[in-house]
Amino acid sequence: MIAETAREKITESGLKFTHQRMVVYNALQVSADHPTAEMVFAKVKEANPSISLGTVYKTLENFVKAGLLQKFTDDSGVMRFDPMLETHSHLYCTATQQIKDYKNPELELLLKKYLQANQIEDFEVEEVSLVIKGKTK
Amino acid sequence: MIAETAREKITESGLKFTHQRMVVYNALQVSADHPTAEMVFAKVKEANPSISLGTVYKTLENFVKAGLLQKFTDDSGVMRFDPMLETHSHLYCTATQQIKDYKNPELELLLKKYLQANQIEDFEVEEVSLVIKGKTK
DNA sequence: TTCTCAAACAGGAATAATTCTTATCTGATA
DNA sequence: TATCAGATAAGAATTATTCCTGTTTGAGAA
After folding, report:
1. Which of residues 29-48 of A touch strand D (CB under 7 A)?
2. Which sign, positive or negative, has the C-alpha torsion B94, B95, B98, B103?
């Protein structure tokens, strides 16, 4: 049951379990796109009409800190939240501004190996991600 | 002479040459970091104290459209402008939030070749960039 | 179960980056 | 040098995000 999974994930990550956190968590698990805080807010209101936008922002930030979500900023400067935790790249369509995940373990391995073999001077790599810009056909 | 180069580049790109555009152009050519619009504004005021912030924003945007600059957004959602035109990657320090260019033609070639050999379904790649997060030693 | 309290929440005010608006000015061309 | 489309200055407006304050709630103790 989805409520149980959410509860487990949230408490496991060291956060107090609340109804608001549960609905935000669930909203992100089912979202295929990379929602903004406003998009999460709109979706979450269906399940909890009295939630406030500030709570959504704070909850998303807490989830990022707790390692449940990834956050990045799109080209127009808006924060996007991403339920996937494995490293993956993003396809950014320059025509429609849509963002899609692009998972390619082979490519990730290639990059990881390259950066291990060729250390960057004075820099310790933690994470690598690829932004591929172009157009959806 | 730097004024001549600026004039050429600006008119070549199809934009009308103005004093404001020249000082913005020159400010970016000499900046090693990836300035924000505010940083450009501060620098440009030395050469032209009466320039307005709105003009700086508009000019930077025009330069991006004309292909003289690259634009991206940093993790805190602020726009950064980048005088380099060749594809290159960014090193993002998670401790200090500093951004540095990382140019590595070998790595770029590797990526380009990989993406040519392994087409992404329904997507036409225009540009690839790597965001490498980590810590400066 | 009820009590207690640190943490979370709602609601809205405040802030910061960016865009827009309008009246004025300027560069390129004739 | 006169013309005019496009560029600029100044500041108002907008948008995303953070902050503040009083109220509520979840989790553990008694």
Report:
1. 36-38
2. negative
Give the whole-angstrom CA distance, residue B57 versus residue B36: 10
Q: Smallest CA–C1' separation from B56: which nucleotide?
A: D8
Cβ contact (<8 Å) for B137 and A120?
Answer: no
CATH architecture of B2-82: Orthogonal Bundle (1.10)
Strand partners, A133: A92, B127
Please state which of the ranges A128-137, B22-31, B50-59, B92-101 shows the lowest mean pLDDT: B92-101
Nearest by Cα to A67 from A30, A120, A14, A116: A14
**Structurally, what CATH architecture does the domain formed by A89-134 represent?**
2-Layer Sandwich (3.30)
Which part of chain A has CATH 3.30.1490?
89-134
Assess contact for B68 and B13: CB atoms under 8 A: yes
User: Residues of CATH 1.10.10.10 domain(s) within chain B?
Assistant: 2-82
Q: How far is the CA of A49 from the C1' of D29 (A)?
A: 33
Mind listing the pLDDT tens digit of every residue in chain A (137 residues)? 444 588 999 998 999 999 999 999 999 988 877 899 999 999 999 999 999 999 999 999 999 999 899 898 988 899 999 886 667 788 888 777 788 888 888 888 888 888 888 888 889 888 888 888 888 88
Q: Report pTM.
A: 0.82
The beta-carbon neighbor of A134 closest among B93, B106, B123 is: B123
The whole-angstrom separation of Cα B93 and Cα B90 is 10
